[in-house]
Amino acid sequence: MAYDYCIIGGGIVGLATARAILEKRPGASLVLLEKEKTLAKHQTGHNSGVIHSGIYYSPGSLKARLCRDGAHETKAFCREHDIYYHDCGKLIVATDSVEKDRMENLYQRSAENGVAVEKVGENELRDMEPYVSGIAALRVPGTAIVDYREVCNALAKNIISLGGEIKLEAEVLAIRECSSYVEVDAESDMISTRRLVVCPGLQADRLARLAGLNPDFRIVPFRGEYYRLSPRWTGKINHLIYPVPDPALPFLGIHLTNMVDGSTTVGPNAMLGMAREGYRKFSLNARDMSEYLLFSGFWKMMRKNFSSGVSEFCNSMAKSHYLKQCRKYCPDLSYDDLKPIEAGIRAQAVSRDGSLIHDFLFLDTERSVFVCNAPSPAATSALPIGKAIARRLFEREGESCKEKVAV
Ligand SMILES: Cc1cc2nc3c(=O)[nH]c(=O)nc-3n(C[C@H](O)[C@H](O)[C@H](O)COP(=O)(O)OP(=O)(O)OC[C@H]3O[C@@H](n4cnc5c(N)ncnc54)[C@H](O)[C@@H]3O)c2cc1C
Description:
Distance between the termini: 9 Å
Number of domains: 2
Largest sheet: 8 strands, mixed
Radius of gyration: 21 Å
Bound molecules: flavin-adenine dinucleotide
CATH class of the largest domain: Alpha Beta
CATH topology of the largest domain: FAD/NAD(P)-binding domain
């Protein structure tokens, strides 16, 4: 089968990319291949459901820009498609003077990133959130919550109405790029496409290798474990409650999140995973583990982050340790309030020198774009990420204009 465009991956990034391409190229033939029986089965369907506003990220980084734009576009998309989202706002709570100083830096950064925030004093914080304790806070009114699976379902409908095809249970097993087309082996289908976009989340390094590339990173899975708060907490927390991040490890920090179903969760931690797609507590996949254990960058990362790794391990193994962290800013929480729910697994790209790659990362070949790293807030940022990828493809098409559909 021959197509103009083929997208691998039915998470939010793949779906947003397919939609962006079809909106700009009406009438083009496009197929999206997803290996699972349903869309959004991995990171997109196991996240906190937050529409971030983009204050944390380095000014000028892709993350900062695409997150800010993504928050606006996601909300507009939800309004257009009748998807419920709630502008609950977020409070970043400082519990001591060190955190208060860091909060000031964050305040400056939010201004540089063009995101509106308000300073909140101790008394005001108590009025806003009687069950939260802290000495000061930043309020981010633009932060919202949504169910990203619903966003994906609407994107899928959009893609089909624009003439695209979505094939489920179509695992891509081989990719061969030639000068005028790319051949994709998806189980029973052999597909030939003019342009390929690969958005495989937790399998990013493997798909790149499948195409004959030699990426300088590996995906290391990090489990994000959550608890749901007992029903006695329903309606007691008004905002999303976040700790002030440690600038050295900005992605760490267990937060209280209201979900669109009315429940409140706490999490996620960041525990080294033993399987990329195994959601049970002790899921283990020998191939997944051996791939990172044999990667020198993994050991360098472990050495650099030893103490936070131990702390996250304790968080995972002992509920009392996890509870202690939450009680720093929500002291009334009790052991019995925390009911475990299914974890999510982050695809974290780690480079050969042991650094965690924080920004979005793309790799281009003549006819393909590989999304190598799309960590949080990629769900928030997916719509502009999709447009950015479509632009990359179209610019390339401009260079080799007047191509004919291959095969
Ligand atoms: C615990 C957790 C909490 C998070 N919280 C938030 C949040 O609140 N807000 C936010 O903005 N972001 C959040 N994120 C980040 C966000 O969820 C991800 O960045 C985003 O979902 C990535 O989307 P994706 O499409 O790249 O990957 P995925 O959703 O993982 O999708 C990749 C898809 O590719 C498919 N695939 C892989 N290999 C193949 C193959 N060979 N053939 C065919 N298909 C294949 C997979 O089956 C999968 O469906 C969170 C992530 C986690 C894990």
